[in-house]
Design goal:
Order of helices and strands: EHEHEHEHEHEHEHEH
Strand content: 15-25%
Strand order of the largest sheet: 2-1-3-4
Distance between the termini: 12 Å
Radius of gyration: 19 Å
Number of helices: 8
Structural class: alpha/beta
CATH class of the largest domain: Alpha Beta
CATH architecture of the largest domain: 3-Layer(aba) Sandwich
CATH topology of the largest domain: Rossmann fold
Number of domains: 2
Largest sheet: 4 strands, parallel
Number of strands: 8
C-alpha cells in the first residue's frame, strides 16, 4: 500500500516555526517508508488541511496517516481531527488518524534533555536535585489539556529539588505566579523550560516578555535564572511521530 504521512500543526507566521516543521518532515521521510511526508496547518497560514490532503493524493497514495502535531488534547486538536475526517470522507480517500503527542513518555525525556543541555552550556554547578524547575505551558480553556500537561510535569519531580508549572495564557497560574512560587522555596538555581514545539511568536516574544517582567518585579539579582530551548527539531520527536503513526495503522489493520 502506498501511504502518506501528514502532520497537522496549529500554524504560525514565524518562518523559524515553518522551517522546523519542514526539517522534521524531511527526517521522518528518511526514517520511514512513506511515499510522501508533509505538513499542513489548522489555521493562521496555508497550506491548510485540505491543501495538505490534496498534496498527499497527488502523490498517488492509497491511504493517508494523519498525525495531529499537538502537545495537548484541547480544542485545536479536536478541530483538526473533525476537519480531516470530513475532508477525507468527501474525497473518498482512506485515512488513519493517530493520537497526538500528549501522554507520551518521551516528552519527559525531551524536557530533561533541554535541561541537561542548558546546565552544560551555562556550567550550572548545583546538581539536578538542587535545581528548581519551572515548566511553562501554553494554556487552554480545555481541562483535558491541563491534565495532560500536568501529567508530564509531575514525572519530572523525582529528579529535581522542586518542579513547578505555569501557563502563558488562558489558564492559571501565570508565569509571574510560577516564578513567585519558586522564589518562596529559596532556590539555588532556577531553570525555566518553555513547553512549546516551535520557535513561534510565543517563544520569540510573549514568553520572554513575561519572564523578564516577573524577574524585574521580584528583583532576582542573587538567584541565577536560565531558560532552556523549546522542543524544535529532535530525533526523539521523529520517533514519537512514527510510533504514534504505527500504533494507529496497526489498530485498523
Amino acid at each position: 500500500m502506498n501511504r502518506a504521512l501528514l502532520l497537522i500543526d496549529r500554524g504560525s507566521r514565524e518562518p523559524e516555526a515553518q522551517e522546523e516543521l519542514s526539517q522534521l518532515c524531511t527526517l521522518i521521510k528518511q526514517e520511514s517508508k512513506y511515499v510522501y511526508v508533509g505538513h499542513c496547518f489548522l489555521e493562521v497560514i496555508p497550506p491548510y488541511i485540505e491543501e495538505g490532503i490534496n498534496t498527499c493524493i497527488s502523490n498517488n497514495v492509497d491511504s493517508i496517516t494523519v498525525m495531529p502535531y499537538f502537545l495537548y488534547p484541547g480544542m485545536k486538536l479536536k478541530d483538526s481531527v473533525k476537519k480531516t475526517a470530513k475532508i477525507c470522507y468527501d474525497k473518498k480517500i482512506k485515512v488513519v488518524i493517530a493520537k497526538p503527542l500528549s501522554y507520551h513518555n518521551t516528552l519527559n525525556s525531551l524536557i530533561r534533555d533541554r535541561i541537561s543541555f542548558t546546565r552544560e552550556k551555562n556550567k550550572i554547578v548545583p546538581a539536578d536535585n538542587k535545581c528548581d524547575i519551572l515548566v511553562i505551558g501554553h494554556g487552554s480553556s480545555d481541562k483535558s489539556a491541563r491534565t495532560a500537561f500536568v501529567h508530564t510535569v509531575n514525572k519530572l519531580k523525582p529528579y529535581f529539588r522542586t518542579v513547578t508549572f505555569c501557563f502563558l495564557e488562558l489558564d492559571e497560574p501565570r508565569i509571574a505566579n510560577g516564578i513567585e512560587k519558586i522564589i518562596s522555596s529559596n532556590p539555588n538555581a532556577m531553570i525555566i523550560v518553555p513547553y512549546f514545539l516551535h520557535k513561534g511568536a510565543h517563544i520569540k516574544n510573549d514568553v520572554v516578555k513575561d519572564i523578564k517582567f516577573a524577574l524585574t518585579k521580584y528583583n532576582l539579582k542573587n538567584i541565577p535564572v536560565y531558560i532552556t530551548e523549546h522542543f524544535g527539531v529532535d530525533p526523539k520527536l521523529v520517533n514519537m511521530v512514527l510510533e504514534r503513526a504505527k500504533e494507529a495503522e496497526e489498530k485498523v489493520g
